[in-house]
Amino acid sequence: MKKNYRNNIKFGVTSGLSSGILWGLDTVITGIILTMYSFVSDVQVIAIAPIVAAFLHDLSSAFWMTLVSVFKKDFFNTIKLIKTRSGRFVALAAIFGGPVGMMAYMFAISNIGPGYTAAISAVYPAAGAFFGYIFLKDKLSIKGWIGLSMSILSIIILGYSPGDADVKNFAFGFIAALITILGWSLESVICAYGMKDDIMPMEALTIRQVTSALIYLVIVVVFIKGGSLSYHVLTTKTMLYILITALIGTCSYIFYYSAIDSIGPVKATGLNITYSIWAIIFSLVIFGGDLSFKLVFCSILIIIGSVLVSKDQAQ
Questions:
Q1: Coil/strand/helix, residue 134
Q2: CA-CA distances (angstroms) from residue 24 to 55, 131, 203?
Q3: Of 254, 105, 113, 258, nearest in space to 185 by CA
Q4: Within a 10 A sphere around the Cβ of 39, how many other Cβ atoms?
Q5: With the CA atoms of 284, 288, 290 and 296 taken in that order, what torsion angle do they form, in degrees rounded to the nearest 10?
Q6: For residues 256 and 47, is the Cβ–Cβ distance under 8 A?
Q7: Cβ 120 vs Cβ 59: under 8 Å
Q8: CB 268 within 8 A of CB 260
């Protein structure tokens, strides 16, 4: 049975903003982890590092959620929920948000850095509204389409002439960020549908992370032969950093799923995308340096465009 916070606007807004702040921090720290020795020792390692990092991130998050679920004495009930129709939709959302979206996100960070990645991927709420229009027949007003067009235009501007000395492969990273948009936008829509009846946000997140981690395990061990690298990272101090980062990311997910359940997926994602700006702020605090005018300008346009779509859908 759903609790009263479902219609608590203040709770939902606070949760959505908190998810954005924490995901911005997660993004920056993830960028640091990807530069550590365990991930850059040779060419082969560099090639599969983002996938292994994504696997270990969601595996660690599944570990934290399992601990919470066991502490609440709700773990076995949560596992049973996977067999329900709602649980299967949450598991499907996990595939788009984890193995599809998160792996692409890691590749984007490793190739174009956390700043560009956060700015480009922040368009996913507008994409979610678009998918809602295609699959759910939710119509956009002129204001909504203006917001969607503004976000897409900002992505095109960012994709043209990167001019960043720290970028390794902009074309590949840019495509990876676009795949992130696809995965995360579909995750929010599908997950909201799955949570509308009998699954609470904490239960949905546990299902999401466990499902994602298991699929990653198959991908890493069977398809990319990353078992040895994963084991190596598990035995180094890098894993401690991943655990801490995953804890931050897990808290972000908890706030995000709570916001989705409380105020709906479009409003929740509209607040969550503020991680784009927070990632820039955290990058400045940690690394210092000067901001790119184009990055800041496009980040603002993306957020304005996504919020326009979000407000349109929420009305």
A1: helix
A2: 19, 25, 24
A3: 105
A4: 19
A5: -10
A6: no
A7: no
A8: yes
**pLDDT digits over 253-274, tens only?**
999 988 888 877 877 887 888 8
- CA dist 54 and 139 (Å) reads 35
Helices (H), 223-263: 227-234, 238-263
Query: Percent of the chain beyond pLDDT 70?
Result: 86
Q: For the purposes of burial, counting CB atoms within 10 Å of the CB of 270, is it exposed (0-12), middle (13-18) or buried (19 or more)?
A: buried
Side chain identity, residue 223: F
164 CB-contact burial (10 Å; exposed 0-12 / middle 13-18 / buried 19+): middle
310: amino acid identity, one letter = S
CB atoms within 10 A of CB 77: 11
Contacts of 142 (CB under 8 A, 6+ apart): none
* pLDDT tens track for 37-94: 555 555 556 667 778 888 999 899 999 999 999 998 888 888 888 888 888 998 999 9
Rounded to whole angstroms, the Cα distance separating 188 from 144 reads 18
CB count, 10 Å around CB of 163?
9
Q: Within 10 Å of residue 71's Cβ, how many Cβ atoms?
A: 9
Tell me how far apart the alpha carbons of residues 173 and 196 are, in angstroms, rounded to a whole number: 35
Cα angle, residue 56 at apex, residues 210 and 47 outer, rounded to 5°: 130
Q: State the Cα–Cα distance between residues 160 and 165, nearest whole angstrom.
A: 15
Distance between CA atoms of residues 122 and 59, nearest Å = 24
Using CA atoms, how far residue 297 sits from 39, 54, 199, 278, in Å, is: 32, 29, 39, 14
- Do the beta carbons of residue 13 and residue 264 sit within 8 Å? no
Determine the Cα–Cα distance for residues 95 and 92; give it in Å rounded to an integer.
5
Non-local (6+) Cβ contacts of 290 within 8 A are none
What is the C-alpha to C-alpha distance for residues 139 and 181, in angstroms, rounded to an integer?
A: 20
3-state secondary structure of 301: helix
Angstrom distance (rounded) from CA 56 to CA 217? 9
